[in-house]
Amino acid sequence: MMPAAIHLDRVSLSFADGSRLFDGLSLSLPAGRCTCLLGPSGCGKSTLLRLISGIADCRVEGTIRFEPDPGPAGRCAWMGQDDLLLPWFTLLDNVLLGARLRGERDPARQDQARRLLAEAGLADCAGSLPGALSGGMRQRGALLRTLMEERPIMLMDEPFSALDALTRMRLQNLSSRLTAGSTVVLVTHDVMEAVRMANRIIVLGGDPVGVRSQLDLPGTPPRPADAPAVSDHYGPLLDLLLRESS
Ligand SMILES: Nc1ncnc2c1ncn2[C@@H]1O[C@H](COP(=O)(O)OP(=O)(O)OP(=O)(O)O)[C@@H](O)[C@H]1O
Question: Terminus of the chain with fewer CB atoms < 10 Å: N or C?
Answer without folding.
Answer: C
